[in-house]
Amino acid sequence: MKRILKVLLLPLVLCAMNHASAEVEFKLRQLSPHLHVLYGQGGNIAISVGEDGIYLVDDQFAKLSDGIRAQISKLKPEVPEFVINTHHHGDHTGGNENFANAGSHVIAHKNVYRRLKDKHGEGSKFLPVISFGQDMTLHFNGENAKVWHYANAHTDGDAVIFYERANAVHTGDIFFNLNSLPFVDVDSGGSLDGVIASVANILERIDDKTIVIPGHGPVTNKDGLTEYKALLEHSKSIMLAAIEKHQSLEAVVAAQPLAELKLSYANWLPQERVTKLFYRSLMSSEGND
């Protein structure tokens, strides 16, 4: 009986998935002659288009792959040669399998490879076929794209892509440009201090004309990233004061120390969850000093 129900329900599930994909509003914006950003559902996608072909930074969710390909075809009707993952989370890597099956080659930090292998298994098409340690450079479409690993920031596998000729940078989820605080994935090696240090380093490597593509939210510039760094540092100070005063996690959460910032919070990342993650990160950092 269960098997019959599964057969009957499968078309409904597929229909629901297609409907969900159709509801996503994609927005494609040109940033330079060869670089575009695609907004959809999940992490922002950077698209490099030129004589050598196409490559992406991140690929959102699996259900959106057809829609993403349709947007790419507006620029050039080809399969992307590469997909670079900024980290392992599903809203940035969910399309890996679909793009790999179409002929794309996934690139990511070695910790992303390890985490995706733990989730999907050895030999899965979700896994990168090229993994790197500290850095690598992709010489493609007349661009020198420096892919740099930042340790223990949003996760333990974060990659930031610096486009030399376009004077742009894709930060992945080290930067949430949503009038909000970031998701510090402590359980995946992330830390608040790591995010702050990473943002500080990125700022040292860019100039006032650099286009900054965040992991989520609209494209901005160095000033926008500078304001984000100040917010991170302020929120850390608030949390440290709350920890010193209230000590326990429960007491800090009850005090709602971050409320004074009057920020926006997503349903999946409410203020209480951010407070708990920041607490765990800062207490862990204190224990390692």
From TrEMBL:
Its main location: periplasm. GO terms for biological process: antibiotic catabolic process; response to antibiotic. Its cofactor is Zn(2+). It comes from the Bacteria. Residues 1-22 form the signal peptide. Monomer. This is beta-lactamase.
